[in-house]
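Sequence decides. Our protein:
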Amino acid sequence: MQKFTLELLFRIIGIGSASGLIYNNGSLYLVSDNSHMVYNYNIDAKTLDKTSLVNKDYTGPLENIPKADKPDYEAIAIKNDSLYLFGSGSADNRNLIGHININTKELYPHIDAADLYLAMQSFGETDPQDFNIEAAVNDGDTWYLFNRGNGPKRKNGIFTLTGTLNNTAFQIIYNPIKLPKINGIQAGFTDATLANGKLYFIAAAEKTSSTYDDGEAAGTLIGRLNIEKMKVEKTAVISETHKFEGITLYKDLDKTLEFLLCEDTDDDATETDIYKLSFKK
């Protein structure tokens, strides 16, 4: 992981504040933290489709939603033919999980995760001001939800949930995870993906001690985590200026892993740069 290449692969016009992404069968699905949309970018055709996550009775803005009102979808995961978009839980109006069929684009009722998030905070002995879900990974009946340590106590950790998401009935295990600093600032989880039986994650450093307010970006690292031991095996700083908020496995080659990354620039620009990160296994 020490030797890697990071390159700008393409730019998507029509989506801003990208906070998570997942690659599946030639399509790149993205979520934005200030939007009620799920975005589907066809890489070969270079086309972008948008599907609303709210019903027809909704009268508010669908994109560029003001900070106080936004659903704050920060994590996206796929299970079978369904996409799940997780609210961060960092405020009372950010406890919903969107659910959509990727084939038919059928929108299912949102899952209210308020009680689940409260149970997770209790198991993880995490105060509400330190609770901020930024990554979700599905592995069958097991879900890994990553708490970003950008609150006052900088609590990075992973909640392992075994059960059924749709009725939020889970057995919960919490493991605190120690991450390094970038230029003297504590890094916090921003996304994760599964590859070769390992969890690969990115973590960004930001000059803030709030799960609500953004701060100046101080860089991003990538790491590999052993699932059985819940221990970080390797990390490497991939940028000292970018705040990458999304990672997904792109290609698993014989000797190389390739990931796609997205960046949240915390501005109102309606364009998103997609980067490719490559390194030897």
Observations:
- The mean pLDDT is 93.
- The first helix runs from residue 114 to 123.
